């Protein structure tokens, strides 16, 4: 019961989060229409991108996407022309961008960027948090989840997100881990027609499929936390031990962050986990791209993979031949969840610098 109560509390806090004196946040729901083809086999590694028509099925549906919109109130809203669309990783929610515990204020990128004049919208993935959770987990695949996010980006450019805020001219996508994979998927599918004016892909590299962590770190959500997830189909999964998301050096992050993480974790689907190899495909995206990883990322930077940045950049650039610019940044000392370490301010400064740079192109 305690767990349930805490979970509700953390979610309620979202609605009242005010990140510092000069910023205000509000929660909202954006209905989106998605009409895409997904592989009939949800464990298809390339999410249908390499499949023939007979192995695909159509999903034509409408979903509610939940988000927390933060804006600087000192800034003339009519003049705010750029918005950041923040997309969390696997088994996280929008709270990754703003852990709503006061002493964790230093870990809120939504607050950090807002205080520097940048509005943001942090969404929950389809199937996750307070967004629509399809009854059948195999409806939550990269094509559906990514299309929902690109519809949200379109909404930000064409409609008023909250009263008094005009549509934005530019949307910069910032992803973390599977959220970067989701933005990568859109970049592959939409290429030069992409709605995004720049991509900041954190905690994600184009690892060959054989180095992707095995399914064994997953537990069906219904077994992990029956009170919350007992009715979900077994394709909705979570992870019970989250230490791999942090640096191996346990002095690099707060033990309380790990507790908070454990209480606020959410679900993902077997499909999106299995479809990680899409990040090894080529995107004909023409906007600017940066990939940012933590040097202590236990998923992507093991075996000295992130030591020689020249070499790493050359490897990663292959997937982005048409990008206006392409860079790789390695944040020293940060783990996979670079936003949640003591050293979070390092990546935060990097993100803001890239948003400014990309906005002025
Ligand atoms: C389509 O792909 C499936 C699965 O990979 C395969 O079994 C089938 O033979 C293919 N059909 C055609 C017409 O190529
Ligand atoms: C938050 O960060 C600021 C500077 O970045 C630092 O002075 C302060 O001590 C930090 N607060 C906590 C609670 O860690
Ligand atoms: C989910 O949908 C797929 C595709 O339509 C179907 O094959 C599968 O049986 C469904 N699973 C459940 C649990 O309904
Ligand atoms: C979690 O996994 C790590 C290895 O990745 C291990 O060292 C640690 O003991 C595990 N923690 C728990 C609570 O099982
Ligand atoms: C996570 O929370 C659950 C439920 O309160 C608890 O049983 C478990 O020990 C916690 N795990 C860690 C690693 O703190
Ligand atoms: C990094 O990799 C590049 C390209 O493979 C190589 O030329 C260079 O010598 C390497 N630098 C170091 C310090 O190992």
Automatic annotation (TrEMBL):
Q: Where is the signal peptide?
A: 1-20
Annotated source species: Mycena sanguinolenta
The protein's name: Alpha/beta hydrolase family-domain-containing protein
Looking at the Swiss-Prot or TrEMBL record, what is one Pfam family this protein matches?
Answer: Abhydrolase_6
Q: Which Gene3D superfamilies match?
A: alpha/beta hydrolase
InterPro entries in the cross-refs: AB_hydrolase_1, AB_hydrolase_fold
User: For the AB hydrolase-1 domain, which residue ranges apply?
Assistant: 85-341
Alphabetically sorted, this entry's keywords are:
Hydrolase, Signal
Among the GO molecular function terms of this UniProt record, one is:
hydrolase activity
Keyword Hydrolase applies: yes
